[in-house]
Write a structure and sequence with these properties.
alpha/beta, FAD/NAD(P)-binding domain, 28% helix, 4 domains, Rossmann fold
Length: 592
């Protein structure tokens, strides 16, 4: 046993041979996240004699290793053929409890996870009695679904030992090298004429002061050494057919007279990078001579070549940096772009190296140089940089001053809200990352996009580079603002995930897909128009035209099921019988 608080109630077992299901129900305290608001013992008592329930148990942490072993023991000792875990979101631990089922020789698709944390205890902390009643209803619905479950077998597909990396910035190039080193063939597709992305434009980059251009040259040389990497520049992915493990990718190369090549790949890694926020004319003075964005300023510093910093032939003696331009803006890009504070601190240090006498003013809304980048923030201040914090609702104003200088007026909260006007030779707008315009690629691959416009992974901790499209992964700053180091790390995560799938030669897919009842299907074609993944086609079977679902292509969204006028479509794992049982359980009213 685990040593954790465990309370077990064994229900009345069914008579031998009556065909009734034997279901185990495990209700999690979640360390108080659930049990502080839901009476888990009351939930157990209300459901322990539910039809088919043989074991009802409460536990402190259902996901812990010890409790997992306890579940396995109960499944084996009680001969359970169904499992219900009432805990947190399935997005967090569905894979965990499917693994428990497999290790106990229980069909993993006879398991149901009921979310009584996010959907109940966290939502109803002000109403424990109501939260408990809701938990009982939700778990009863999960029992109903499990009671009507059928044993399902994962779909097994053979995989092609090749992958396509779309985007040859620092993340894509490093990913291509890693994939090649695992023994996979790699197609590296870059939209621009040259490899390198943003990193290839810059000199010294934080945190190691290594030149971005030199890093790209090293990566390009490593790519050239590997004959299993095929590079396409001035190229775009324009077509994808087939299914996971065997995608047929179509790449268009060239401009005026484009050529097209096709390649079969087992997976696709998207590393298309980001765009830098482009201010509107007049935004923080943008458009006035001497007002630059952060990338423009970085290129100016890099071009100095160790000489004193100058702009259009005039020496630079003072610089004002305006932070959070295009980031953390109500009604605009509300997210923090994360890298900008550290990048600006690093640029400030480079400027001090060129000329310690240059005065630098950092007008910010709170500096976020997280982790080891805090050391650069400290060094910039030790070099003489002045950090001034302005209120969210009073941004700095930039106007043309006398003698070609710029006047920057800021309200400094660190000096009791005093308004200060700073004369500056240059104003640097610290612009953040914004999503790159890739709508054609997004539509082609059906990539999920978040509220911030960047691509979404399945889970930031458990599946950080996988998308809901099997075999299509995301890496680098197409996921969200990242430093170069973080981008390379996510690229290598995509390498590990692709290699883990493709090196085995076969992959397993969830069987939770749509299925057609051939006897009821009339071949009307209504379902074809609603499938976003083109997984349904008309076929001839025994002289009849019916719909057929390509199981390896179907994502189990269920959008086709309610549209069928004949009720000929069903979704495995969420069949009509299962959903009806869940609804009936939710509306069940106890007899007083």
């Amino acid at each position: 046993m685990t040593g954790e608080p465990v309370d077990v109630q064994i229900g009345k077992p069914p008579e031998d041979g009556d065909g009734e299901r034997r279901i185990g129900v495990f209700i999690c305290h979640c360390g108080g996240n659930i049990s502080d608001y839901v009476d888990v013992a009351a939930v157990r008592d209300a459901l322990k004699d539910e039809k088919g329930v043989v074991v009802a148990e409460t536990t402190m942490f259902a996901c812990s290793d010890g409790t997992q072993h306890d579940m396995i023991d109960q499944i084996r000792e009680q001969g359970l053929d169904g499992l219900v875990v009432a805990s947190c979101s399935p997005k967090l631990h569905q894979i965990t409890f499917r693994g428990v089922s497999k290790r106990a020789d229980l069909n993993p698709y006879a398991y149901t996870q009921v979310n009584i944390r996010e959907q109940d205890s966290w939502a109803h902390g002000d109403d424990p009695e109501g939260a408990t009643e809701k938990a009982i209803a939700l778990v009863r619905a999960g029992i109903g679904r499990t009671r009507n479950s059928e044993p399902l077998v994962p779909l097994v597909v053979e995989t092609t030992p090749a992958t396509m990396v779309v985007g040859a910035g620092i993340a894509g190039m490093r990913a291509a090298i890693g994939l090649a080193d695992t023994g996979l063939h790699v197609y590296l597709v870059e939209r621009e004429p040259e490899l390198g992305g943003w990193a290839g434009r810059f000199g010294a980059m934080f945190p190691n002061d290594r030149s971005g251009r030199e890093q790209i040259e090293v990566l390009a040389a490593e790519i050239a050494k590997r004959p299993t990497i095929t590079v396409f520049t001035d190229a775009e992915l324009v077509g994808k057919t087939g299914s996971f493990g065997n995608y047929e990718a179509e790449v268009r190369i060239g401009g005026d007279q484009p050529d097209t090549i096709r390649a079969t790949v087992g997976s696709i890694v998207i590393a298309t990078g980001f765009d830098s926020y482009q201010p509107d004319v007049g935004e923080f003075g943008y458009g006035i001579k001497g007002v630059l964005t952060l990338p423009e300023f970085k290129e100016l510093v890099d071009s100095a070549g160790g000489r004193a910093l100058a702009y259009e032939g005039r020496p630079v003696r003072s610089i004002a940096y305006v932070y959070c331009v295009g980031s953390r803006q109500p009604g605009g890009n509300e997210y923090c772009s994360k890298f900008c504070c550290a990048a600006t601190a690093h640029a400030s240090i480079l400027v001090s190296t060129l000329d310690p006498g240059i005065r630098q003013f950092h007008l910010n809304r709170g500096v976020r140089t997280y982790g080891k980048y805090e050391l650069m923030y400290t060094q910039a201040r030790e070099n003489g940089a002045v950090y001034m914090t302005y209120p969210d609702d009073t941004p700095p104003a930039v106007v043309q001053g006398k003698g070609g200088r710029l006047d920057v007026t800021v309200t400094d909260t660190l000096t009791a809200g005093r308004e200060v006007t700073i004369p500056a030779d240059l104003v640097v707008l610290v612009t953040g990352m914004v999503p790159r315009d890739n709508h054609e690629l997004t539509d082609l691959l059906k990539l999920p996009v978040g509220d911030d416009g960047f691509y979404n992974e399945i889970h930031p901790k458990l599946r950080p580079v996988e998308t809901v499209v099997d075999g299509v992964m995301i890496a680098g700053s197409c996921q969200g603002p990242k430093t170069a180091t973080e981008s390379v790390a996510s690229g290598m995560a995509a390498v590990a995930q692709s290699a883990a799938i493709l090196k085995k030669g076969v992959a397993e897919l969830d069987p939770l897909v749509a299925t057609v009842h051939a006897d009821a299907c009339t071949g009307c074609g209504d379902c074809l128009t609603t499938c976003p993944y083109d997984a349904i086609a008309r076929v001839e079977r025994e002289g009849r035209t019916i719909a057929e679902v390509a199981a390896a292509v179907c994502k189990g969204c269920g959008g086709c099921v309610p549209l069928c006028p004949e009720g000929a479509l069903d979704l495995l794992g969420y069949t009509d019988a299962q959903m009806t049982a869940m609804i009936d359980s939710l509306v069940e009213v106890p007899v007083s």
